[in-house]
From TrEMBL:
This is PqqA peptide cyclase. Binds 1 [4Fe-4S] cluster. The cluster is coordinated with 3 cysteines and an exchangeable S-adenosyl-L-methionine. Residues 6-225 form the Radical SAM core domain. Its cofactor is [4Fe-4S] cluster. Keywords: 4Fe-4S, Iron, Iron-sulfur, Metal-binding, Oxidoreductase, PQQ biosynthesis, S-adenosyl-L-methionine. Signal peptide: none annotated. It comes from Vreelandella alkaliphila. Belongs to the radical SAM superfamily. PqqE family. The keyword Hydrolase does not apply. Its EC number is 1.21.98.4. One of its GO terms (molecular function) is 4 iron, 4 sulfur cluster binding. The keyword Oxidoreductase applies. SMART domains: Elp3 (SM00729). PANTHER family: PQQA PEPTIDE CYCLASE, RADICAL SAM DOMAIN PROTEIN.
Amino acid sequence: MVNKTTSPPLWLLAELTYRCPLQCAYCSNPLEFTRYQNELDTDAWFSVLRQARAMGAAQLGFSGGEPLIRQDLEALVSEARQLGFYTNLLTSGVGLTAQRVNALAEAGLDHIQISLQAADPELAQALAGSAKAHANKLAMAKAVKAAGYPMVLNVVLHRHNIDQIGDLIALCDELGADAVELANCQYYGWAFLNRQALMPTREQLVRAEAETNRWRETLAARGRDMSLLFVVPDYFEQAPKACMGGWGSIFMTVAPDGAVLPCHSARELPMAFPNVKETSLQDIWYQSDAFNRFRGTQWMPALCQQCDDRDKDHGGCRCQAYLLTGDMNATDPVCQHSPQHGLLESLIAENSHNTPDQATLIPRNARQSKQLQGQAEIQSGLRQSGLAAPSPRQPLELIYRQ
């Protein structure tokens, strides 16, 4: 039976794999990504695409990890094209070749976005954990453009590269980019683990946004059509975002192992999510406890229920609320009216006195992931045996930092 009050999904994010050749310390993948080894095969992904399209989903993103690791990517793109999806490939560019760009174009891929780490090759190497990635990214950006795609580049900004923003924009201009997303780091997954070393100061943010505006004026004066989108980190805002347009409203993620999530960070939360191997997407979207948990306003704390913006911001981000307060039902502390808003003000103030270097970053790799799992299992075992005081489940990021 369909829940008549819920609209169908419009956006499907297909996280094809958590495998990735890079080690970015700001990755939003789960810290325990090595726990999820049993990836959906090609036929299972075909079924996911068909089910989602039948429900009404029209936008499809292929991501990861690094989706290019999947050798069936072209087959999945071809199937999506036949089903009528508009398809996006979100990639680091590592593993991409001119030949594969052409093969993906022939399969019907509509759009490619490539990520950059920095303008300076040495800094890019340090952030990505790869000596060859930066040069390959620049070459593949040009190959994407040569294949007839718009060149769309994404840069995650943080404390270690934000002061290079002028050089980053100049590099994108030189490459011939059509659109550049300057996305300040949001703190989930590995980024939350590395938050202290990644958070910029307020002064850095102000300078970076001013430099972006100067570049906008320069580009306009030259008649250069390259859009610049500057995304401020949530922590520095006064009002919460309408995360994913609202929980279970328009967006659905299918993880590599088949777990179905309202957003790609939802595995941060202390709740169970259904799997497409066992349940249809239709039933998951409309009937599952997970997807209905934070729909509407009944779940909201009184502060949010009484707010005129409750139907605009939907109570903010559940993952952010949980990571910052330990309570996924809490008002998002980004909200200036939240009783916990002072947490962010304190973090920003404390961070202005820190001078972290790149050596303090914990890389996103399999060894670190397994170590994190071990730490969490030890803590859980101690609580179950009575050797540690029982406590509410903590985010794994906080357990590791203790």
